[in-house]
Amino acid sequence: MSASSLRHLERTLVEHDEPQLSPDDYKQVFRRHAAGVAVVTLRDGDRPVGFTATSVISVSAAPPLLAFSLASGSSSWPALSRAATVAVSFLAEGQEEVSTRFATSGIDRFAAGGWTALPTGEPVIVGAQAWVRGRVVQRTPVGDSYLVSLRALDHGVTDAHPLVYRDRVYHRLVAPTA
Fold first, then answer.
1. GO MF annotations for this entry (predicted)?
2. Which of 12, 26, 85, 173 would disulfide-bridge 21, Cβ 3.0–4.6 Å?
3. CB–CB of 129/91 below 8 Å?
């Protein structure tokens, strides 16, 4: 998004004198929206960096694009702002501890293990249901966050079931019904 487009968006949001949701009301809506859980990882020099994300979305199949958001105040943002490539590991049921660890600030999220490096250097989570390695194509400031778009370059998949997060609790999917 160009700087002029961003300014236009900001003016449009300010010009309309419409009621809007408070941040707490908005969070209440999305806490009830079930989402898959992913861990985004990258290399910042020799140091692995990673964080938990429930905001990963598929954008396009041709070309293969995905995106996620990250708060600009996140401790991972400085490294992500410099990264050329990242890996997104889609967690499997039973990986609640991994999700919690990568969502916790102020700790070495990689110290407990459970990850391996791709030949290109990006860490991926062992036992994840799938992973995608992607090249960062755009970092768009939106509100107090950045929307980061990736072009998928490589992947791996398993038959594991996904880890799902809703209303601050992890869930497992039940068997599908006809």
1. FMN binding; riboflavin reductase (NADPH) activity
2. 26
3. yes
Q: Residue 135 has which token pair?
A: 């090249």
Instruction: Please give the structure tokens belonging to residue 150.
Output: 């990736």
Task: State CA 18 to chain mean position distance.
Answer: 30
The domain ranges of the chain are 34-167
The Cα–Cα gap between 138 and 150 comes to 7
Q: According to DSSP H, which parts of 37-156 are helical?
A: 77-82, 96-103
Q: What is the pTM of this model?
A: 0.86
Q: For 103-140, write each residue's pLDDT tens digit.
A: 999 999 999 999 999 999 999 999 999 999 999 999 99
- 62, 120, 129, 167, 174 from 27: Cα distances, Å: 32, 37, 27, 10, 26
Residue ranges of the alpha helices (H) in 18-66? 23-31
Q: Which amino acid is at 17?
A: D
Please give the full DSSP string across 74-98, using - where no structure is assigned.
Answer: -TTHHHHHH-SEEEEEEPBTT-HHH
